[in-house]
Design a protein that fits this description.
The structure holds 2 protein chains of 2 kinds. Chain A is an alpha+beta fold. In chain A, 40% of the residues lie in helices and 12% in strands. Chain A has 2 domains: 61 residues; 107 residues, no CATH class. In chain A, strands 1-2 form a two-stranded antiparallel sheet. Chain A has a two-stranded antiparallel ribbon with strand order 3-4. The longest helix of chain A has 29 residues. Chain B is an all-alpha fold. The longest helix of chain B is centred in the middle third of the chain and has 41 residues. The chains are: A alpha+beta, B mainly alpha.
Chain lengths: 201, 193
């Protein structure tokens, strides 16, 4: 937390603000000229200016490297392209997911498939919170003929949002023939975290 | 028709509200960078940033229709990003802060035991990041937006809905705290240069 102890010695707050404004390109021409005079005759102010300048440089470098380590610079652009498609798919997917329980037959097989209407933007739901709701995204209608055989016996569909240590992915795959038909797969990945521990154990 | 790349943000928002996906896509490309940085500044770690950012844009898509005052789109988007980051990252951030604290303690012990030891570039990098993550969030956010996005005080104030003077004060205090934490780097390395 900020305390007075953090205040630079020998430099009053107005000069410190001028230094920060100068480093942030916010200083006017007059303020720049004033600061140049101050730095020329005040060694403490000059030292502070150099320290802040140095810290800024280190911070920019560290932050950029850290952010770059998360994903490539183009990741946002690329991922959004996928993300937008994913969101469209999710909108339709939710419709299908919402009907999965109804289609569960006693032996655990999907007996029928669901055809949804076109995905509507307002039907989208957060990727991390499955909100099954009937009638979203156009009226679904049942079709009788399956284009492929799918076995859902091993899938345990649990529409419960869990966050801690669980990452949930929804994978939607469009049917080749019927573009309004989307098959939903749900994958959960459990993550572990290593935390450094100090002291005697 | 695809929107022009030089279309204004208001124009893109209006088009996106009418259902123009190309306009929304262009809007996303234009602003994805700073949204990432807001999320990053809030959670304090890059690992979950892109997942959270995906959620933010999905929410934008869902809720864009509710944005009536288009003049305030930046603060609206900022709040969406911030809230998504808080929702998704609070627990992880707490865990990381604990581990960073332990890391810091280990490094301090290491440094104190060898007074003439020079820090490697990697250690410097880690120390600086730990110091930035250790800043109170009210200082860390404007600091990151200023230093990574290069935003002016006015733009930071617009997004964070605070007066420019407050932004300035927070940036001054962020630097003070970083100087206090990193003084050995700023002075030692400065004199080496």
């Amino acid at each position: 937390m900020h305390t007075d102890d953090d205040k630079p010695a020998g430099v009053d707050e107005r000069i410190e603000r001028l230094i920060c404004r100068r480093l942030d390109d916010e200083a006017s021409a007059e303020e720049r000229a004033e600061l140049a005079g101050i730095l020329a005759r005040n060694p403490a102010a000059r030292a502070l200016f150099e320290e802040y300048e140095r810290i800024d440089g280190l911070a920019v470098s560290a932050l950029r490297q850290d952010l770059a380590s998360a994903s490539p610079a183009t990741a946002g652009r690329r991922r959004w392209g996928v993300g937008l498609a994913g969101a469209v798919m999710t909108a339709a997917a939710v419709v299908a997911v919402s009907f999965l329980p109804r289609l569960w037959s006693p032996d655990g097989r999907i007996a029928q498939q669901v055809e949804t209407g076109p995905a509507m933007p307002q039907a989208a739901v957060p990727m991390n919170g499955i909100q099954a709701g009937a009638g979203v995204g156009g009226a679904p209608r049942m079709i009788q003929h399956s284009p492929m055989s799918m076995d859902y016996r091993d899938i345990d569909y649990r529409p419960v949002r869990r966050v801690r240590d669980v990452r949930r992915d929804l994978i939607g795959i469009r049917d080749n023939k019927n573009k309004n038909l989307i098959y939903i797969f749900e994958r959960e990945a459990y993550s572990t975290r290593l935390v450094p521990v100090s002291g005697d154990i | 028709m695809a929107p022009r790349s030089d279309a204004g943000d208001h124009e893109l928002i209006a088009a996106a509200q009418r259902g123009d996906q190309d306009a929304l896509d262009l809007f996303v490309r234009r602003h994805n960078g700073w949204v990432r940085n807001v999320v990053y500044a809030t959670v304090g770690h890059p690992s979950a940033v892109d997942d959270i950012v995906q959620q933010v844009w999905t929410k934008v898509w869902q809720q864009l229709g509710s944005l009536v005052d288009r003049d305030r789109w930046r603060s609206w988007l900022y709040k969406l990003a911030k809230n998504a980051a808080i929702d998704a990252g609070m627990k992880a951030a707490r865990q990381r802060r604990r581990s960073v604290g332990i890391d810091d303690a280990a490094r301090i012990v290491s440094r104190e035991s060898g007074p003439t030891t020079k820090l490697s570039g990697e250690e410097t990098h880690r120390e600086v990041l730990a110091a930035i993550r250790g800043l109170p969030e009210i200082y860390r956010e404007p600091f990151i937006l200023r230093h990574i996005e290069g935003w002016s005080y006015a733009r930071i104030g617009e997004a964070m809905t605070m007066p420019v003077d407050t932004v300035e004060t927070r940036l001054v205090r962020a630097r003070r705290l970083l100087r206090s934490t990193l003084r050995h780097l700023a002075v030692d390395r400065g004199s080496d240069a």
